[in-house]
Specification:
The complex is a heterodimer.
Chain A: H1 2-9, H2 15-41, H3 49-79, H4 82-108, H5 111-135
Helix pairs in contact in A: 2-3, 2-5, 3-4, 4-5
Chain B: H1 6-29, H2 35-58, H3 66-92, H4 95-119, H5 125-152
Helix pairs in contact in B: 2-3, 2-5, 3-4, 4-5
Organism (chain B): Saccharolobus islandicus (strain Y.N.15.51 / Yellowstone #2)
Keywords (chain B): Membrane, Transmembrane, Transmembrane helix
Protein name (chain B): Multipass membrane protein
Protein backbone atom coordinates (compact mmCIF):
# COMPACT_ATOMS: atom_id res chain seq x y z
CA UNK A 1 0.00 0.00 0.00
CA UNK A 2 2.68 2.48 1.01
CA UNK A 3 4.79 1.53 -2.03
CA UNK A 4 1.82 2.31 -4.27
CA UNK A 5 1.39 5.73 -2.65
CA UNK A 6 5.09 6.52 -3.16
CA UNK A 7 4.99 5.53 -6.82
CA UNK A 8 1.83 7.62 -7.33
CA UNK A 9 3.37 10.71 -5.77
CA UNK A 10 6.29 10.57 -8.21
CA UNK A 11 4.12 11.07 -11.30
CA UNK A 12 4.94 14.57 -12.51
CA UNK A 13 3.08 16.82 -14.93
CA UNK A 14 4.85 17.37 -18.25
CA UNK A 15 7.25 20.17 -19.16
CA UNK A 16 4.50 21.94 -21.14
CA UNK A 17 2.38 22.15 -17.97
CA UNK A 18 5.32 23.74 -16.15
CA UNK A 19 5.71 26.42 -18.84
CA UNK A 20 1.96 27.13 -19.05
CA UNK A 21 1.62 27.53 -15.28
CA UNK A 22 4.81 29.64 -15.07
CA UNK A 23 3.47 31.99 -17.78
CA UNK A 24 0.13 32.15 -16.00
CA UNK A 25 1.78 33.04 -12.68
CA UNK A 26 3.85 35.84 -14.28
CA UNK A 27 0.75 37.12 -16.10
CA UNK A 28 -1.22 37.12 -12.82
CA UNK A 29 1.54 39.14 -11.12
CA UNK A 30 1.46 41.69 -13.95
CA UNK A 31 -2.33 41.72 -13.80
CA UNK A 32 -2.22 42.51 -10.08
CA UNK A 33 0.31 45.30 -10.67
CA UNK A 34 -1.86 46.87 -13.40
CA UNK A 35 -5.01 46.46 -11.28
CA UNK A 36 -3.49 48.11 -8.20
CA UNK A 37 -2.14 50.91 -10.40
CA UNK A 38 -5.66 51.36 -11.80
CA UNK A 39 -7.06 51.46 -8.27
CA UNK A 40 -4.58 54.08 -7.04
CA UNK A 41 -3.99 56.32 -10.06
CA UNK A 42 -7.25 56.26 -12.07
CA UNK A 43 -10.45 58.17 -11.49
CA UNK A 44 -13.56 56.94 -13.32
CA UNK A 45 -14.64 58.20 -15.87
CA UNK A 46 -11.22 58.23 -17.53
CA UNK A 47 -9.89 61.40 -19.13
CA UNK A 48 -6.10 61.13 -19.49
CA UNK A 49 -4.12 58.90 -21.89
CA UNK A 50 -2.04 57.32 -19.07
CA UNK A 51 -5.18 56.32 -17.11
CA UNK A 52 -6.63 54.61 -20.17
CA UNK A 53 -3.29 52.87 -20.80
CA UNK A 54 -3.25 51.42 -17.25
CA UNK A 55 -6.81 50.13 -17.48
CA UNK A 56 -6.23 48.72 -20.98
CA UNK A 57 -3.14 46.80 -19.84
CA UNK A 58 -5.20 45.39 -16.93
CA UNK A 59 -7.95 44.19 -19.30
CA UNK A 60 -5.46 42.77 -21.84
CA UNK A 61 -3.61 40.82 -19.15
CA UNK A 62 -6.95 39.57 -17.79
CA UNK A 63 -7.88 38.19 -21.22
CA UNK A 64 -4.46 36.50 -21.51
CA UNK A 65 -4.89 35.01 -18.01
CA UNK A 66 -8.26 33.57 -19.01
CA UNK A 67 -6.75 32.10 -22.18
CA UNK A 68 -3.84 30.46 -20.31
CA UNK A 69 -6.23 29.18 -17.62
CA UNK A 70 -8.25 27.39 -20.29
CA UNK A 71 -5.03 26.02 -21.80
CA UNK A 72 -3.95 24.75 -18.37
CA UNK A 73 -7.29 23.00 -17.88
CA UNK A 74 -7.07 21.38 -21.33
CA UNK A 75 -3.51 20.16 -20.72
CA UNK A 76 -4.46 18.77 -17.27
CA UNK A 77 -7.36 16.85 -18.87
CA UNK A 78 -4.88 15.39 -21.37
CA UNK A 79 -2.42 14.36 -18.66
CA UNK A 80 -5.00 12.93 -16.28
CA UNK A 81 -3.43 13.76 -12.89
CA UNK A 82 -6.31 14.22 -10.49
CA UNK A 83 -5.03 16.94 -8.16
CA UNK A 84 -3.69 19.04 -11.05
CA UNK A 85 -7.04 18.67 -12.80
CA UNK A 86 -8.89 19.84 -9.67
CA UNK A 87 -6.55 22.80 -9.22
CA UNK A 88 -6.98 23.85 -12.88
CA UNK A 89 -10.75 23.56 -12.65
CA UNK A 90 -10.82 25.67 -9.46
CA UNK A 91 -8.45 28.14 -11.14
CA UNK A 92 -10.78 28.63 -14.09
CA UNK A 93 -13.73 28.96 -11.69
CA UNK A 94 -11.95 31.70 -9.71
CA UNK A 95 -10.94 33.45 -12.96
CA UNK A 96 -14.61 33.38 -14.00
CA UNK A 97 -15.69 34.90 -10.66
CA UNK A 98 -13.02 37.61 -10.94
CA UNK A 99 -13.89 38.39 -14.56
CA UNK A 100 -17.60 38.62 -13.80
CA UNK A 101 -16.88 40.89 -10.83
CA UNK A 102 -14.57 43.09 -12.89
CA UNK A 103 -17.04 43.50 -15.73
CA UNK A 104 -19.88 44.28 -13.29
CA UNK A 105 -17.67 46.86 -11.58
CA UNK A 106 -16.79 48.45 -14.91
CA UNK A 107 -20.47 48.75 -15.78
CA UNK A 108 -21.98 49.74 -12.44
CA UNK A 109 -19.01 51.30 -10.54
CA UNK A 110 -20.09 49.63 -7.26
CA UNK A 111 -17.00 48.79 -5.13
CA UNK A 112 -18.51 45.48 -3.91
CA UNK A 113 -17.78 43.99 -7.34
CA UNK A 114 -14.18 45.23 -7.21
CA UNK A 115 -13.82 43.42 -3.86
CA UNK A 116 -15.21 40.24 -5.47
CA UNK A 117 -12.62 40.65 -8.25
CA UNK A 118 -9.84 40.91 -5.64
CA UNK A 119 -10.95 37.75 -3.82
CA UNK A 120 -11.18 35.82 -7.10
CA UNK A 121 -7.61 36.88 -7.87
CA UNK A 122 -6.40 35.36 -4.58
CA UNK A 123 -7.91 31.94 -5.33
CA UNK A 124 -6.63 31.98 -8.89
CA UNK A 125 -3.07 32.84 -7.85
CA UNK A 126 -3.08 30.11 -5.17
CA UNK A 127 -4.28 27.43 -7.62
CA UNK A 128 -1.87 28.49 -10.39
CA UNK A 129 1.21 28.55 -8.18
CA UNK A 130 0.17 25.19 -6.69
CA UNK A 131 0.17 23.69 -10.20
CA UNK A 132 3.51 25.40 -10.92
CA UNK A 133 5.20 23.89 -7.87
CA UNK A 134 3.54 20.51 -8.47
CA UNK A 135 5.13 20.50 -11.94
CA UNK A 136 8.65 21.46 -10.77
CA UNK B 1 -29.54 -12.31 13.53
CA UNK B 2 -27.29 -9.31 14.24
CA UNK B 3 -26.80 -8.68 17.96
CA UNK B 4 -25.97 -4.95 17.77
CA UNK B 5 -28.67 -2.74 16.27
CA UNK B 6 -28.10 -1.40 12.75
CA UNK B 7 -28.07 2.27 13.80
CA UNK B 8 -25.20 1.62 16.21
CA UNK B 9 -23.25 -0.15 13.43
CA UNK B 10 -23.72 2.86 11.15
CA UNK B 11 -22.58 5.30 13.87
CA UNK B 12 -19.47 3.23 14.69
CA UNK B 13 -18.60 2.90 11.00
CA UNK B 14 -18.92 6.64 10.48
CA UNK B 15 -16.68 7.35 13.47
CA UNK B 16 -14.08 4.89 12.14
CA UNK B 17 -14.19 6.53 8.68
CA UNK B 18 -13.69 9.99 10.18
CA UNK B 19 -10.82 8.68 12.32
CA UNK B 20 -9.15 7.13 9.25
CA UNK B 21 -9.46 10.43 7.34
CA UNK B 22 -7.99 12.25 10.36
CA UNK B 23 -5.01 9.87 10.42
CA UNK B 24 -4.46 10.33 6.67
CA UNK B 25 -4.60 14.13 6.85
CA UNK B 26 -2.34 14.32 9.91
CA UNK B 27 0.21 12.07 8.16
CA UNK B 28 0.06 14.32 5.09
CA UNK B 29 0.39 17.49 7.16
CA UNK B 30 3.42 16.29 9.17
CA UNK B 31 5.64 15.41 6.22
CA UNK B 32 8.73 17.69 6.24
CA UNK B 33 8.81 18.61 9.95
CA UNK B 34 5.17 19.82 9.73
CA UNK B 35 5.85 22.12 6.75
CA UNK B 36 2.43 21.55 5.03
CA UNK B 37 0.58 22.43 8.26
CA UNK B 38 2.55 25.66 8.74
CA UNK B 39 2.23 26.59 5.04
CA UNK B 40 -1.53 26.00 4.92
CA UNK B 41 -1.94 28.12 8.04
CA UNK B 42 0.13 30.83 6.39
CA UNK B 43 -2.01 30.75 3.22
CA UNK B 44 -5.20 31.00 5.31
CA UNK B 45 -3.83 33.98 7.26
CA UNK B 46 -2.65 35.57 3.97
CA UNK B 47 -6.26 35.35 2.76
CA UNK B 48 -7.51 37.17 5.87
CA UNK B 49 -4.74 39.78 5.52
CA UNK B 50 -5.55 40.32 1.85
CA UNK B 51 -9.28 40.60 2.57
CA UNK B 52 -8.63 43.23 5.26
CA UNK B 53 -6.16 45.20 3.15
CA UNK B 54 -8.39 45.17 0.07
CA UNK B 55 -11.32 46.34 2.23
CA UNK B 56 -9.22 49.41 3.09
CA UNK B 57 -8.08 49.98 -0.51
CA UNK B 58 -11.26 49.30 -2.50
CA UNK B 59 -13.71 51.13 -0.25
CA UNK B 60 -11.18 53.96 0.38
CA UNK B 61 -11.57 53.71 4.19
CA UNK B 62 -9.43 55.70 6.65
CA UNK B 63 -6.50 53.84 8.23
CA UNK B 64 -8.28 52.72 11.42
CA UNK B 65 -10.75 50.20 12.77
CA UNK B 66 -11.33 46.48 12.28
CA UNK B 67 -9.90 46.07 8.70
CA UNK B 68 -6.59 47.65 9.75
CA UNK B 69 -6.42 45.41 12.84
CA UNK B 70 -7.01 42.33 10.65
CA UNK B 71 -4.29 43.53 8.27
CA UNK B 72 -1.65 44.28 10.93
CA UNK B 73 -2.24 41.19 13.08
CA UNK B 74 -2.32 39.00 9.96
CA UNK B 75 1.01 40.50 8.87
CA UNK B 76 2.60 39.71 12.25
CA UNK B 77 1.29 36.12 12.20
CA UNK B 78 2.45 35.61 8.58
CA UNK B 79 5.94 36.82 9.52
CA UNK B 80 6.12 34.37 12.44
CA UNK B 81 4.84 31.46 10.33
CA UNK B 82 7.24 32.22 7.45
CA UNK B 83 10.21 32.06 9.85
CA UNK B 84 8.74 28.77 11.17
CA UNK B 85 8.66 27.44 7.59
CA UNK B 86 12.33 28.37 7.15
CA UNK B 87 13.19 26.68 10.45
CA UNK B 88 11.53 23.39 9.56
CA UNK B 89 13.02 23.43 6.04
CA UNK B 90 16.52 23.97 7.47
CA UNK B 91 16.15 21.21 10.05
CA UNK B 92 14.86 18.82 7.34
CA UNK B 93 17.95 19.70 5.19
CA UNK B 94 16.09 19.82 1.84
CA UNK B 95 17.73 22.26 -0.60
CA UNK B 96 14.62 23.20 -2.63
CA UNK B 97 12.48 23.75 0.47
CA UNK B 98 15.19 25.97 2.01
CA UNK B 99 15.38 28.11 -1.17
CA UNK B 100 11.59 28.52 -1.43
CA UNK B 101 11.18 29.40 2.26
CA UNK B 102 14.09 31.90 2.19
CA UNK B 103 12.34 33.62 -0.77
CA UNK B 104 9.13 33.57 1.30
CA UNK B 105 10.83 35.20 4.32
CA UNK B 106 12.46 37.86 2.10
CA UNK B 107 9.22 38.79 0.35
CA UNK B 108 7.29 38.97 3.65
CA UNK B 109 10.07 41.20 5.05
CA UNK B 110 9.96 43.48 1.99
CA UNK B 111 6.17 43.77 2.20
CA UNK B 112 6.40 44.58 5.91
CA UNK B 113 9.01 47.30 5.29
CA UNK B 114 7.02 48.89 2.44
CA UNK B 115 3.82 48.80 4.50
CA UNK B 116 5.54 50.28 7.54
CA UNK B 117 6.96 53.13 5.45
CA UNK B 118 3.47 54.00 4.24
CA UNK B 119 1.81 53.57 7.64
CA UNK B 120 4.58 55.47 9.44
CA UNK B 121 3.83 58.69 7.61
CA UNK B 122 5.49 58.67 4.18
CA UNK B 123 2.27 59.05 2.18
CA UNK B 124 3.43 57.73 -1.20
CA UNK B 125 1.27 55.29 -3.16
CA UNK B 126 4.36 53.59 -4.69
CA UNK B 127 5.00 51.94 -1.31
CA UNK B 128 1.54 50.33 -1.53
CA UNK B 129 2.40 49.01 -5.01
CA UNK B 130 5.63 47.47 -3.61
CA UNK B 131 3.64 45.96 -0.72
CA UNK B 132 1.14 44.43 -3.15
CA UNK B 133 3.79 42.94 -5.43
CA UNK B 134 5.69 41.38 -2.52
CA UNK B 135 2.38 40.02 -1.22
CA UNK B 136 1.95 38.29 -4.59
CA UNK B 137 5.44 36.82 -4.33
CA UNK B 138 4.83 35.73 -0.70
CA UNK B 139 1.61 33.95 -1.69
CA UNK B 140 3.35 32.17 -4.60
CA UNK B 141 6.19 30.96 -2.37
CA UNK B 142 3.89 29.98 0.52
CA UNK B 143 1.67 27.82 -1.68
CA UNK B 144 4.87 26.54 -3.30
CA UNK B 145 6.13 25.41 0.14
CA UNK B 146 2.78 23.70 0.75
CA UNK B 147 2.75 21.76 -2.52
CA UNK B 148 6.52 21.07 -2.57
CA UNK B 149 6.52 19.59 0.93
CA UNK B 150 3.41 17.49 0.26
CA UNK B 151 4.70 16.09 -3.04
CA UNK B 152 8.38 15.58 -2.09
CA UNK B 153 8.30 15.00 1.69
Amino acid sequence: MSKLVVSQSRIRPSRLMLYISLTETILLAGLFYAGIATLFYDKFPLNAYSEALTLSSHITLAMLVGFFGAAMLAQSVREGIRSVYLFSLLNLLFIGIAAAGGLAFYGLLIPDYAYLMALGFFGSLFCTSSVLFYAI
Amino acid sequence: MLETPISRVIVLGTIELIYEKYIQISKMMSRMNYMPAIASGEVAILLALYAGGMLLAVYNLPLQGVPLIIHLYGAILVAILSIGLLASAVSYKDKGAIIISILNVLSVLFAAFAGSFYFGGVIDVNYLLQMGMSFVFALITASGCLIYSISKG
